[in-house]
């Protein structure tokens, strides 16, 4: 008796590799992109491909496998982008505050440089200061329009940082006038900081509450 032994089996082939954010390792890792195909076999020897079955991503560290869409995710990159946008908005708010009383004195600029380096963890380039002043002067939007875009993604701590930065700038020239107080109240509302939380900060800074 003579049998022809035939069948199918899946074969894997590496079609790509690189770095990605592994959701299981919760960190950046290497990956392999693997294509799977079904092959026709004769006497267990694959002869030809009968069907492409798809591709998957495998983490080279934990060996977990994922749909290819995982390569588009990157929470760390998203966080970096958000922090950059947040720093830019905080800087613009501070210059806007400083310009509210008509002129900008050196103590205010010093304060902004200090506050910005605390928030962004880097120094402002002095050449950027002139450019930022011009941009803030030209921009007719209110402070609330500036922060409207970043506020929804901020937690209360982030909101507090923005408000305290603005307060430090308002205080830099020694006096806080009623228009600055109005601006600070507007800012607290625009970033949607809970009123009791905002008033706690204002009380601590000896500024009239909302
Ligand atoms: Zn992993």
Give a structural overview.
With 210 residues, the chain is an alpha+beta fold. The protein has two domains: 6-72, no CATH class; 75-204, TerB-like, CATH 1.10.3680.10. It is 47% helix and 24% strand. The chain has seven helices and four strands. The protein has a four-stranded antiparallel sheet with strand order 1-2-3-4, with no helix packed on it. The chain starts with 5 loop residues before the first strand and ends in a 6-residue tail after the last helix. The mean pLDDT is 86. Bound molecules: zinc ion. Zinc ion binds next to loops. Residues 21-69 form the Zinc-ribbon domain. Residues 92-196 form the Co-chaperone DjlA N-terminal domain. This is TerB family tellurite resistance protein. It comes from Yoonia phaeophyticola.
């Amino acid at each position: 008796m003579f049998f022809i032994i035939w069948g199918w089996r899946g074969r894997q082939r590496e079609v790509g590799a690189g770095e990605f954010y592994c959701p299981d390792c919760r960190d950046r890792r290497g990956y392999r992109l693997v294509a799977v195909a079904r092959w026709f076999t004769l006497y267990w020897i694959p002869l030809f491909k009968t069907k492409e079955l798809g591709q998957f991503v495998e983490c080279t560290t934990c060996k977990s496998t994922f749909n290819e869409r995982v390569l588009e995710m990157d929470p760390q990159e998203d966080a970096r982008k958000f922090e950059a946008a947040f720093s830019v908005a905080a800087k613009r708010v501070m210059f806007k505050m400083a310009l509210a009383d008509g002129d900008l004195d050196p103590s205010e600029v010093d304060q902004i440089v200090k506050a910005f380096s605390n928030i962004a963890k880097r120094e402002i380039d002095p050449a950027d200061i002139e450019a930022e002043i011009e941009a803030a002067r030209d921009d007719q939007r209110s402070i609330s329009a500036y922060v409207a875009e970043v506020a929804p993604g901020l937690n209360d701590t982030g909101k507090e940082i923005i408000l305290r930065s603005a307060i430090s700038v308002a205080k830099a020239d020694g006096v806080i006038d009623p228009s600055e107080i109005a601006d600070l109240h507007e800012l607290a509302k625009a970033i949607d900081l809970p009123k009791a939380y905002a008033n706690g900060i204002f009380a601590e800074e000896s500024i009239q509450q909302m």
